[in-house]
Amino acid sequence: MIAAVEAVSAALDLVGLVSFDFLLDDGVPLLLEVNPRPSATLDVFDDPAGALFRAHVAACKGGVLELPRLKGGRAAAVLYADRGAVMPSPLTWPPWTADRPCPGTRIARHRPIATVLASGATAAEAEQICRLRLDELAEMLYGRTGDREINNAKIYRPRTERIGTSS
């Protein structure tokens, strides 16, 4: 995968942070797409001052991509409406959430509600905090009886969240 990334980056003269999506087929990586920009998980891996994004911008302006040495671990997960459809009324969202819906937006069962972010001393600690925050946010939304909507859809997924971690 590294060889493919290096070859494609050189052939396309890519600079800065670039996102490559692969699919594993019986252990063989297949390159699906190249996104010549930072991935949507940049906010997970960057620090509060935006050092990683600043390094990307500097590289795009002709400089060398110098990645900052970030300390600790970070995690992100998506809270899905797996308890049923929900229509969040106005509320004060925790600062560790992103991709929040507008008040009054109906979110169908099993659709994404919001992203939860966490950081810790290690990736494992960040993941644990992230899982606790998923539960807290779900309780905030589903504990508010006026926000619930009954939906008898028969859609099943193996997991209720997607978690990405780094350290």
Structural summary, described in words:
This protein has 167 residues and is α+β, with helices and mostly antiparallel strands. The protein has 4 helices and 6 strands. The chain folds into 2 domains: 2-60, no CATH class; 73-166, no CATH class. It has helices at residues 2-12, 42-45, 51-60, 123-142; strands spanning 19-25, 28-35, 73-80, 97-98, 112-120, 163-166. The strands form 2 sheets. Strands 4-5-3-6 form a 4-stranded antiparallel beta sheet.
Describe the sheet with the most strands: 4 strands, antiparallel
Number of helices, where a helix is a run of at least 4 consecutive DSSP H or I residues: 4
Mean pLDDT: 84
Low-confidence stretches: 145-161
Helix amount, in percent?
25-40%
Count of strand segments: 6
How far the N terminus sits from the C terminus, by CA atoms, comes to 20 Å
Approximate shape: globular
- Strands in their spatial order, largest beta sheet: 4-5-3-6
How many individual domains?
A: 2
Which range does the strand content fall in? 15-25%
Radius of gyration based on Cα positions: 19 Å
The secondary structure category is alpha+beta
Q: Give, in order, the helices and strands.
A: HEEHHEEEHE
